[in-house]
UniProtKB/TrEMBL annotation:
Protein's name according to its UniProt entry: NAD-dependent succinate-semialdehyde dehydrogenase
Record's keyword annotation contains Oxidoreductase: yes
Active-site residues, record numbering mapped to chain: 230
A family per Pfam: Aldedh
CDD domains: ALDH_SSADH1_GabD1
Aldehyde dehydrogenase domain boundaries: 5-450
Sorted UniProt keywords: NADP, Oxidoreductase
Family per record: Belongs to the aldehyde dehydrogenase family.
Transmembrane segments: none
Protein source organism: Aquimarina gracilis
Length: 453
């Protein structure tokens, strides 16, 4: 293995920077510093921590264009989407700034004791292992509640967004966080394994693949450390016969094509009941064709390259195998290096990769359902459990299906999306634990029972 990371602009292949992996000694020092800082940081008031959030928010707003540029250069997301990602981070920070004190306040519970309550104490140093697809957002979603609860954090980011990882570390320092409160490490898989085992690290939050989730959970489990896992998804988007396509088709397309389809919560399986099938395909195709394709740094671009060529190759494999098993191309399916044309595959059935696996690119897999009942059965036929979305005018009838779907989210007439105010996470192979909202900030705390007789 090379001892360097080389980052590249996916649109042109131009080399952006080279980074050296840190030595074991440097990483040990990071861990020791994290622990040292934790001892002081945990004693500060929540108010002192939310004041830092306000500074952080101001700096993010000030440097929005600079960070959006960096995101786009490192992983090829259209600039417009990178700007939206930074704005979402600001929303998250402001949300916890306003609510953290209330979320972390002692919770009185009446018993026969003179006083009994839950105290939410921080755990210590928490490791965050984060992916490249939302290089700022995923890190902030982990770090903001974690730090505000009084923990310290160490970030192991995806190699292709190392520049973002270092920029985020710098951002926390500029906002006035103690130097080792949030640290980025540049580490190999082997070093990460050692970090998880180290006593200083108390828990791990991972957003990434199912495979990475199983590995991290196994290692952390051996050492009895808590994990929060936000893994892949294969969200169904159910179109019922009474769906108002005129109103919702733009949202439905966005649900699949956002971030060039590289989103865990994107709609991946379109399950469409017979009566509306032809109309849906026609409208879906027309809407898809309106997407402005171009260079990622062009502010008008809506869809561009995928983040790496090997990722596009994997999508190609999934599509090719599905076609061999009977799926048909309704639109697109041209690939050149990391560029994958927006694609609609029809006649997709369970057993095909386009139905069973997470397709992490701009490919919509469409399956025809006989009726509403069949549509929900197909939706539930997945190893993953992040979220389901349903488009229908009959909300009352659809409510009855909420309990039949085991996913972490159920959205009606809206794409599945994360929101700082609402819990976010999955079931089954999509992982466990919740991020965001009050649930998220209470993942990495000791819920201590206090009883005073
Ligand atoms: O890849 C996952 C998307 C995460 C999000 O939108 O919060």
């Amino acid at each position: 293995m090379s001892n360097h990371i080389i980052t590249k602009y996916p649109f042109t292949g131009e080399v952006l920077a080279e980074y050296k992996y840190q030595s074991n000694e440097e990483i040990s020092q990071c861990l020791l510093k994290s622990q040292g800082t934790f001892e002081k940081w945990k004693k500060g008031s929540i108010l002192s921590r939310t004041k830092l959030l306000d500074k952080l928010s101001l700096i993010l707003i000030e440097r929005k264009e600079e960070y959006a540029n960096l995101i786009t250069q490192e992983m090829g997301k259209p600039y417009k989407e990178s700007i939206a990602e930074i704005e979402k981070c600001v929303w998250l920070i402001d949300f916890y700034s306003k609510n953290a004190e209330e979320f972390l306040a002692d919770e009185l519970i009446e018993t026969e004791a003179q006083e009994s309550f839950i105290s939410y104490d921080p755990l210590g140093c928490i490791l965050g292992i984060m992916p490249w697809n939302y290089p700022f957002w995923q890190v902030f979603r982990f770090a903001i509640p974690t730090l505000t609860a009084g923990n310290t954090a160490i970030l192991k980011h995806a190699n292709n967004v190392t520049g973002c990882a270092l920029a985020i570390q710098d951002l926390f320092r500029t906002a006035g966080y103690p130097a080792s409160c949030f640290q980025t490490i540049i580490a190999t898989h082997k070093q990460v394994e050692k970090i998880i085992k180290n006593d200083i690290v108390k828990a791990v939050s991972l957003t990434g693949s199912e495979k990475a989730g199983r590995t991290v959970a196994r290692i952390a489990g051996q050492y009895l450390k808590k994990t929060v896992l936000e893994l892949g998804g294969n969200n169904a988007c159910i179109i019922l016969k009474d769906a108002d396509l005129n109103t919702h088709i733009e949202t439905i397309v966005k649900a699949r094509m956002q971030n060039a389809g590289q989103s865990c919560i994107a709609a991946k399986r379109f399950i469409v009941v017979e009566e509306i099938y032809e109309e849906f395909l026609k409208e879906f195709k027309e809407e898809l064709k309106k997407i402005k394709f171009g260079a990622p740094l062009d502010p008008k671009t809506e869809l561009s390259t995928m983040a790496r060529e090997d990722l596009a190759e994997e999508v190609q494999r999934q599509v090719d195998e599905s076609i061999n098993q009977g799926a048909k191309v309704y639109l697109g399916n041209k690939r050149e290096k990391a560029f994958y044309e927006p694609t609609i595959l029809i006649d997709v059935k369970p057993g095909m990769p386009a139905f069973d696996e997470e397709v992490f690119g701009p490919v919509a897999a469409v399956t025809k359902a006989k009726n509403q009942e069949h549509a929900f059965e197909l939706a539930e036929n997945s190893n993953f459990g992040l979220g389901t979305m349903v488009f229908t005018e009959n909300i009352e009838a659809t409510r009855k299906q909420i309990g039949n779907i085991q996913d972490g989210a159920f959205f009606i007439n809206e794409l599945v999306k994360s929101d700082p105010r609402l819990p976010f996470g999955g079931t089954k192979a999509s992982g466990y634990g919740r991020e965001l909202s009050r649930e998220g900030i209470l993942e990495f705390v000791n819920k201590k029972t206090v009883y005073i007789k």
